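Data availability excerpt. The first of two example chains:
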Amino acid sequence: QIKYSWNYALLVSEGPSTRSLVPAPMLRGMADGRLVRFEEITRCPLEVQDSLLSLLSERVVAIPELDGPEGMVFAKQGFNVIATANTRDRGVNEMSAALKRRFNFETVFPIPDLDTELALVEAESAHLLRRSGVAAAPDRDLLEVLVTTFRELRAGEGGDRLSAVMSTAEAVSVAHAVGLRGWYLRGEAGNAADLVASLAGTAAKDSPEDLARLRRYLEQRVPRRRGPHWHAVHEARHLLAG
């Protein structure tokens, strides 16, 4: 499936040919000399991972059903594979040592600067909201509350670290959900109640313990913050009940 498949109607009528061949991303990347992104590599079966060994070492795909030079597709210059995996959630199939040797590893850490992360969340959530037909721009002050909450829960300040992955991408997802709720329920940008409800459904969706930690954070740490948005989030903490 990651190499190629067949158009079975053409395969039955004409037999194996380049017309009946349906190239998959790996074959297309090799033939065109392009980058291939392999998402969540540790979640795919081991036999799929093992099939990458020859592709990355020999940089050629053999198609035994085709005769002559068409049966061998050699990688053009520019072909490479970028595979992703989550260090907090390693999936179900750890990569073999042989496959690890064929990759260079780069760990992407959380953004250390609050202003940089806030600007990224604001830009990406605004882009998603426009695509979703939402005309109201996200409230920057509310986004600052969201990003600060994610950063503190990610760092485990006060012992409230969640087991869920509190990534910047997850913060963008929550900001998008807040904007959708506000616009399609009331025709406005999302408010603190939307934020609390979205946190309950997104950041604490996997573990009852995470929900309890999030509730404790809203009850004990949020009141120490100054500002109307922080006060509104504290007042909406009852939306986590259940």
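And the second chain:
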Amino acid sequence: MHLPLPRPHRDDVRIAVVGLLGGFALWGIGLGMNTGRLLDGAWLLVPLVVMSALELLRRTRPQFAVVVGTLVLVADQFTQGSLATVLMFTDLMYAGVLYGTPAAARRLPVTTGLVTVAATLGFLAWWRQPEAILVGVATGLVSFGPAATGVLVRNHRDRAAEERLRAEQTALLAEMDRAQAVTAERARMARELHDMVANHLSAIAIHSTAALSIDEPATTRTALETIRENSVDGLAEMRRLIGILRDSSGDAEPAAAPTLDGLAALVEQARTNGLDVGLALTGPTLSGPAGGLPAPVELAAYRIVQESLTNALKHASAGRVTVTVERAGERIEVCVTSPYGDRDGPRAPGSGAGLVGMRERTALLGGTFEAGPESDGGGKVWRVRAALPLETPSPEGEPA
């Protein structure tokens, strides 16, 4: 079974036609390159036609075209010779380097260079005349010159292809970085929105349920006051978040981001919402103002306490909730414990996003997080523990 020859490129067809017509024109006006050859007259048309046919293969079968073209050029020396045949051979040599295999592209310039040197020295030894150098120059112009030009063009083409590939890879990496940055920012926004608003909405849901289920004016008024307070605070938090999103300065967090100094107010608000909460701050820099701690660590600790109190408000049974924040060496340890068991009274629905957010905040700082029920003396409690290192590399997608 014979495989069909590949279809020649249209530019190769044009080159072959122009070379063939040019050769016929030179023959028609009687312009030849040699005189007194063995094969005279129209014999020069045979190498001309074969060489033009090889031009059709200059791009698809370059190595074959160079080998056969060399033989045809040698045969052309036994005729009057045609300039068109020689020019088409130089094009085949150029195409052999440009379109051939990498090995052929390396081999052809070396081979033609050696042939040029050998022809020069050989004719000098044979003729012993300075004119022999002209033979070497002609050989170099026909063989080594096109091969060297092909090397230069091929190297330039390969470098251009490498630069295009590098540019495409850079653009792809930039797009991946952009997508990751968008995903990280959306996750941060989701955590902020949940942590800031969920506490107020949970209190509103529980107290509105109590107001609807208990037909006592005093209880209803207290519930409505709590609902109004949480509505105003939730609206303020939403405005702060909107301010962050609209801020074009590039700051990931506003200057007034929550810190550990605000834990007392947070606990007091939880007591207003009906929780029995105790707060303990221990360790250096925590017994007084919490200044000097990294801002991301303070924010994460504050949000973990805030979300833990929100979960206790929604799910904990009656009893005391304890909040402990301690600096132990080079880390901040947060522990929130609440009664675990069946709950009497209204319960707000939960989605589990709070635990996911707390775990993400801790992981971004390189800390450890665990939450779940544990046995504690006379009963079960739900305990949240988080250890936040004070010296951590700035996580990608989070403010440093």
